[in-house]
Design a protein that fits this description.
The protein is α/β, with parallel strands linked by helices and about 240 residues long. The protein contains eight helices and nine strands. It has a single domain, classed as Rossmann fold, CATH 3.40.50. The longest helix is centred in the C-terminal third of the chain and has 21 residues. It starts with a strand and ends with a helix.
């Protein structure tokens, strides 16, 4: 099988548990380090699937690789190569498919509950019986829904937490987190936490509390999501 391409947009926002899951399934993956100057691949058919990770920038910023990334996403959708986006990655998918990215009413930084929408597509991605779960957040912007998208998740502070279009999935929240990623973000993002206020912003000591238990529950959710996504990989 061709490898899964993983687009890293910032040095501290690597694939985390997503890569762990791929390796557990025996699936090859290739990291494309956009943050280190590597180019966005021009040919979607080189890969079985393409994943986009997070980053502190905005998709509305005048960065040359953003147009290349959105072009790749559109090519993937046209060629039936599944794409998945985490936070910034989800926003890139939304923008590529014609939606808008705007400031969210409140920042979300830390752990927060999301509601699972009552739509048939939820069964594919999250299974039966799941009504809500706690996930990780770190964002100040939000996406609207592109044409044909179905909202899967929402939260009180952010209406659009995830959407799907067929085998393609965009997440505003972070299901890919590991203890290493969380600890690194709390260090590098200490000033942002200190200068942010609102009901969705938690201090680092709260974010890092009971990590093993929180991550075990989050990874159980990620296993469901990633299992459905890899079913669609193009051989």
């Amino acid at each position: 099988m061709k490898p899964v391409a993983i687009m890293r947009h910032y040095c501290t926002e690597g694939p985390g548990y997503f890569a762990t899951y791929l390796e557990r399934c025996g699936l090859r993956w290739q990291l494309v380090r956009i943050d280190a100057g590597e180019s966005v691949p021009p040919d979607a058919l080189r890969f079985s699937g393409v994943a986009f990770m997070g980053g502190p920038m905005s998709v509305n910023d005048p960065l040359p690789w953003i147009a290349q990334a959105t072009a790749l996403i559109r090519q993937c959708v046209a060629a039936d190569v599944p794409v998945i986006g985490h936070c910034l990655g989800g926003q890139l998918i939304a923008r590529a498919l014609g939606a808008t990215i705007t400031p969210n009413a409140s920042k979300e930084i830390g752990w927060g509950e999301v509601e699972v929408e009552d739509v048939p597509q939820v069964l594919r991605w999250f299974g039966a019986g799941l009504r809500r779960f706690t996930t990780f957040h770190w964002h100040g912007e939000t996406f609207s829904l592109p044409a044909g998208a179905v909202r899967l998740l929402s939260s009180p502070l952010c209406r659009n937490q995830a959407f799907a279009i067929g085998k393609h999935l965009a997440l505003q929240c972070h299901v890919e987190m590991t203890a290493e990623l969380i600890e690194s973000w709390c260090r590098s993002g200490a000033q942002e936490i200190a200068h942010s206020a609102g009901p969705g912003v938690q201090p680092a000591e709260v974010i890092e509390r009971d990590l093993a238990e929180r991550l075990a529950r989050l990874h159980a959710i990620a296993d469901r999501v990633y299992a459905r996504w890899v079913e669609g990989l193009r051989l």
